[in-house]
Amino acid sequence: MKKLALGVMLVCASMGAVAKDWKVIRFGVNPSYAPFESKAASGELVGFDIDLGNALCARLKAKCVWVENAWDGIIPALKAKKFDAILSSMAVTEKRLQQISFSDKIYNVPPRLVAKKGNALQPAPDTLRGKRIGVEQGSTAEAYAKAYWEPKGVTVTSYPNQDQVYQDLTSGRLDAAFQSSVQAELGFLKTAAGRDYAFAGNGVADVKTLGVGAAIGLRQEDADLRQQLNRALAEVHKDGTYKRLAAKYFSFDIY
Amino acid sequence: MNEIIAIVQEYGQAYLWSDGYRLSGLAMTLWLLLLSIVIGFVMSVPLAVARVSSNRLISGPVWLYTYVFRGTPLYIQLLIIYSGIYSLEAVRAQPLLDAFFREGFNCTLLAFALNTCAYTTEVFAGMIRETPHGEIEAARAYGMSRFTLYRRIILPSALRRALPSYSNEVILMLHSTSIAFTATVPDLLKVARDVNSATYASFEAFGLAAVLYASVVFALVWLFRRCERRWLAFLQPRAH
Hints:
heterodimer, A: 255 residues, alpha/beta, D-Maltodextrin-Binding Protein, domain 2, 2 domains, globular, B: 240 residues, mainly alpha, MetI-like fold, 11 helices, flat, signal (chain A), transport (chain A), periplasm (chain A), Solute-binding_3/MltF_N (chain A), ABC transporter substrate-binding protein (chain A)
């Protein structure tokens, strides 16, 4: 088994040495996470990740193709070569690193609680005990809440997607929702439905469950694509494209 | 293979009965199945009798009920009951309704029970209609009242003859429970999704769930076969 793995690695490495020319880069995306990636009414993909991906492709003189995929199957799909990279605000984690590799960080957004305005909730187990907190299944916020809050008597309920978390927050089933702060601000707090809601406490940080930030997910064998994307990323930072694109969506620094 | 062993070691308990804080996985799936099947069965027998009534005022509403619940996807029924009903101010203002619909489990159970009851009602009603005329005439000749006729002749025979189609409905219901996570109920498929998103070992994660579902179906088929052998013996071809 080890020999086979070594062989495969050698073959991959030698292929990498030939440096495939990436004329077309196919990005896998799950467009349900505004403002990073979502679908406009016309069906067109919009968001910061989409703009950033297109800017990277322009740098690399490659054609960008966007492939939509369900979130919970996005890594298997990458490995099955349905696309070449995941650009869908995927956070870098230990477990994901065992399966795929990542580009340099594209941004780092901490998760934050959202609850009715005027409440005294804080992201700490003692103020949350006995409360119902909604999280998205498979998110890093879920991992954090399950690791640090659930054992201390907080009811952590997982949802198939983030929209349902907000829906149950407004209907009153949940006391608070826990998710990426950018997602919460633009996907909920700034919408009509989120009028009466606000952040509760500050963002939390924990490398073990939350990771170091989001990056572009890549197949481990595609080291050349990783190099090229990292180079393009450095360039869009240097020439101000990144700042310009980010300013379109965020009022604060997300890097 | 190593992957499967690692998954079983880490998530075996969640797959089978508990995620450490509440019922999850197979136990939750079976609990949902059992409750909805029992509620559905108990309600469907009187509804089936009403369904075959020659009085339109009695059979009409039951026809409408089965038409609505068989005519729309269970998934949509669950969404309406879980998200739709609880979004109504009037429901939340009523403490009893609020307490009931607040829990995702109650909503799921309600949707499943109403759905399986609709199908079961039609199965039973069909079997009641197919009761041989001779048996009914014989019972009338004995002077049985309508109630006695149903209790002693029609229902025992109809329910027995319904066994094969009813077992199908139970198995389909088991598979339908896999949408329970839509209402945040941590059923077997939800655990498989958890494992998939935590390990990305999709084949192993969903494969384990599939094996568990299949084992339950195997047990159900065996159980119904036993029941059929016992209660449908009179329909078996006999060798002398």
